[in-house]
Each structure stands twice: as structure tokens, then as C-alpha cells.
UniProtKB/TrEMBL annotation:
<feature type="transmembrane region" description="Helical">
    <location>
        <begin position="72"/>
        <end position="94"/>
    </location>
</feature>
<feature type="transmembrane region" description="Helical">
    <location>
        <begin position="141"/>
        <end position="168"/>
    </location>
</feature>
<feature type="transmembrane region" description="Helical">
    <location>
        <begin position="100"/>
        <end position="120"/>
    </location>
</feature>
<feature type="transmembrane region" description="Helical">
    <location>
        <begin position="334"/>
        <end position="355"/>
    </location>
</feature>
<keyword id="KW-0812">Transmembrane</keyword>
<keyword id="KW-1133">Transmembrane helix</keyword>
<protein>
    <recommendedName>
        <fullName>Glycosyltransferase RgtA/B/C/D-like domain-containing protein</fullName>
    </recommendedName>
</protein>
<feature type="transmembrane region" description="Helical">
    <location>
        <begin position="289"/>
        <end position="313"/>
    </location>
</feature>
<feature type="transmembrane region" description="Helical">
    <location>
        <begin position="33"/>
        <end position="51"/>
    </location>
</feature>
<keyword id="KW-0472">Membrane</keyword>
<feature type="transmembrane region" description="Helical">
    <location>
        <begin position="180"/>
        <end position="207"/>
    </location>
</feature>
<feature type="transmembrane region" description="Helical">
    <location>
        <begin position="361"/>
        <end position="379"/>
    </location>
</feature>
<feature type="transmembrane region" description="Helical">
    <location>
        <begin position="219"/>
        <end position="242"/>
    </location>
</feature>
Length: 405
């Protein structure tokens, strides 16, 4: 455990160097906020470590597997094996203990929140208060369930980091090409199907976004995303055993039914496969709620899910559709990624415990859309108020000229 404590301090120092680099690029970057977020995230590392000490946890298997083979590249591949590939040198060359690996991956999850902060803050400079007194950005960054599932050795932390790196880099892909490539690689090697959703969302965003994008920038994104999908299509289909399929729709339906049935038998199962699509999506986004919470953890998560639901209700307005039509690339990309991921995962998820973990990687895209929508409404009100004041001042000036004439 001493090694884990030393690593925590070492990574804190690394954080400061990262913060200095980004604060020189972004004047609004708050090192104080990010340091507070680091220690907050470490608290959830402690919570998860305690939970894993008394319950079955995949993190233990992720620590043991890399020790079974002396060949590092034996583990090079997609999905679970890629996590083993990332872990292998730290465990076998640097002698990291289980606790140190948990800290290392918790730090990767934390970096995901740093990039999420920059993604939100750079695109939405306006502060928004929700529920009367809560800053929406701060509330979003400190959601407990998001930290819990990104604070341990496993897929959750690095996939969240990859998604947020990608989202942040998309604002200026040419100047952030390295960040974009690293984020894309992380997403693809951990969850190839999520890379598919991200690529489709990005292309659609660039095709329909309100910004005037140069031809060179569009070409870079189109070639990169579409070309990447062509190159990795077999690996993506292979995740569901569909690489040699003659009927993708039928075979995917069979795969999702088998997968859903298997997960429903692993405890806290729900018959989501029998639900209509709207109820499937509701279950994935907002359950468990208090009436079906699996245990103490489920009750805690229910509070957060209720918060998600209350935030989601804020965009159920008539003007949301017109907002989407005129929204920028980042909003449309986020919405497409969120819906495609949700749609696909609802067909294979039927276990509330797994749903709680899986949705953590995509909910931030929904939060971004909600945040941008509320900020746009506030900005429109400010502009309208300024115009009204200008008109009043002009009428007052004209009146005074008449009186004094």
C-alpha cells in the first residue's frame, strides 16, 4: 500500500505539469478546481478498492492475467486483452502491486474528467445554474457514479479518457491531432463498436453543423473517420461474431438476444429484451430508480439517476428541435454518439449492475447537449435584453432631443 501512496503523490506532480501546459493554452483553465477533482476522484478509488476487497471484482482478474505470459505482445488486441496489454509492463517490468495498478487506472479515469472539463468549458463559456443554486459544470464533474466506475483497474477508466480526449480534440483537429489519434486508438482498441458510433457521429456532425468548415478540415475528418472504419470493419463485426455474416440484421438480432439472456442470468436482471424501444432506452439511461435498486449501491445510484432524469426533462421543450437544427458540430456529434451507443447497448444489456457501469462512458455526451442547450437559451435571453436596452436608450435619446429642441 506504501507504493500506492507514493504513486498518488508522484501522479499529483505529473498533474501539475499537465495543468501548467493547458493553463498556458486556456486562460479559463482552473488548476485549483482540477486539484480538488483529483482528490475527490481518489476518494472513489478508496471506495472502489474497499468494495473490491469484500466483493468479486474484475479488477483482480485484470491484475492476474498479465502475469500468465512473458510475451508482452501476446496480449495485443482489442477489448479485454488490450487492458492486459496496457497493464503488462507496469506489472511485469516495474513491479506494480494490485493497489498501484488500481491507482494508475484511477488516474487515467481522472484525466478523462480533466478533458471533459476542457471539452465543456471551451465550447460553453457561459455559467449555468440548475436546481436554483447548483453550477451545472461543477455538478457534472462531481457526479459520484461517474467517478466510481472510472476509479479502478479495468475498461471503464481508459475508455472514458479516450472518449473525452477525442471530444476535446475535435474542436481543433489539426492542432490537436496527437490527442485525437490517441483518443481514437484508445476507443477502438477497448471498444471497437463505440469507435464506430464516434466515427459516425463525427461525420454527421461535420456534415450538418452550423460552422463554416474549410474543405481541408472536412477532408481530414471524413478520410480519417471513414477510412478508419473501412480498415477496422472486420474487428468491429468480430466483436459480435458477425465478420462472416450474410445477413447482418438477422445475425445481430440473434446475437443481442443471446447476449441479453446471458446477462439477465448474472444477478439483478431485468427483462429489458421484452421492452419496447422507448422503455429500453429509459431503463438504460435512468434505471435503477428507487423501486428497483439492487442493494445499497443501487440506492445511491438511484439518487444520481433521478438527477439525470430531471436534467433530461429540461430539453423536452418545443424549441429543442430548432436548437438542434442550428447547433454546432460538437452538439450534433455528442447527440449521435449518445443515441447510437444507447440504442446498441440496450439490445445486449439486461442486468442493472452492468447497465450502471456501461452507461458511464456515454452519459457525458448527453450532459454536454443539455448544458449547451441551456447555455444557448441564456445567451439568447442576454442578447434580447441588450437589444431591448439599446432600443430604450435610443428612444430616450430621441425624446430628449425633441424636448430640448
Amino acid at each position: 500500500m506504501i507504493g500506492a501512496l507514493v504513486l498518488i503523490l508522484f501522479l499529483f506532480g505529473i498533474n501539475q505539469a499537465i495543468f501548467n501546459a493547458y493553463s498556458s493554452k486556456h486562460k479559463w483553465f482552473s488548476k485549483d478546481l482540477m486539484n480538488k477533482l483529483y482528490f475527490y476522484h481518489l476518494f472513489f478509488f478508496g471506495v472502489y478498492y474497499t468494495y473490491a476487497s469484500f466483493n468479486n471484482s474484475d479488477s483482480k482478474a485484470y491484475y492476474e492475467r498479465p502475469q500468465l505470459n512473458d510475451d508482452w505482445f501476446y496480449y495485443f488486441g482489442t477489448s479485454t486483452t488490450f487492458i492486459d496489454f496496457l497493464s503488462w509492463p507496469f506489472i511485469n517490468l516495474f513491479g506494480f502491486s494490485y493497489e498501484m495498478m488500481m491507482v494508475l487506472f484511477a488516474w487515467l479515469g481522472y484525466l478523462g474528467f480533466v478533458y471533459a472539463y476542457m471539452f465543456f468549458r471551451e465550447n460553453i463559456p457561459i455559467k449555468i445554474k440548475v436546481f436554483k443554486n447548483f453550477d451545472l459544470l461543477i455538478l457534472t464533474l462531481f457526479l459520484p457514479n461517474m467517478h466510481f466506475w472510472t476509479a479502478s483497474l479495468g475498461k471503464g477508466a481508459p475508455i472514458f479518457l479516450g472518449l473525452m480526449m477525442f471530444a476535446y480534440a475535435l474542436k481543433n483537429p489539426k492542432s490537436r491531432l496527437v490527442t485525437l489519434l490517441i483518443g481514437s486508438a484508445i476507443i477502438y482498441f477497448i471498444r471497437p463498436h463505440v469507435f464506430l458510433f464516434v466515427a459516425v457521429g463525427t461525420v454527421l456532425g461535420y456534415m450538418t453543423g452550423k460552422e463554416k468548415i474549410s474543405f481541408g478540415k472536412k477532408l481530414l475528418i471524413y478520410v480519417g473517420m471513414i477510412g478508419g472504419l473501412v480498415l477496422v470493419q472486420d474487428q468491429i463485426l468480430g466483436m459480435a461474431g458477425l465478420e462472416n455474416s450474410d445477413n447482418l440484421v438477422s445475425d445481430f438480432d440473434n446475437f443481442s438476444e443471446d447476449r441479453s439472456q446471458g446477462l439477465s442470468e448474472s444477478g439483478s436482471g431485468v427483462a429489458i429484451s421484452d421492452y419496447p424501444l422507448p422503455l429500453k432506452l429509459f431503463t438504460f439511461w435512468f434505471r435503477p430508480l428507487f423501486f428497483d435498486a439492487p442493494g445499497i449501491l443501487g440506492l445511491i445510484v438511484s439518487v444520481e439517476n433521478l438527477l439525470y432524469l430531471l436534467l433530461f426533462i429540461k430539453i423536452l421543450k418545443k424549441d429543442f428541435i430548432s436548437f438542434l437544427k442550428n447547433s454546432p458540430i460538437s452538439v450534433k456529434m455528442s447527440l449521435v454518439v449518445f443515441f447510437l451507443s444507447s440504442f446498441a447497448l440496450t439490445f445486449v444489456m439486461s442486468n442493472l449492475g452492468i447497465i450502471m457501469r456501461q452507461k458511464s462512458m456515454v452519459m457525458y455526451f448527453l450532459f454536454f447537449v443539455i448544458y449547451y442547450y441551456l447555455a444557448q437559451k441564456k445567451y439568447d435571453r442576454i442578447i434580447k435584453l441588450k437589444k431591448k436596452r439599446k432600443a430604450m436608450l435610443r428612444r430616450k435619446f430621441e425624446y430628449e432631443e425633441v424636448v430640448n429642441a
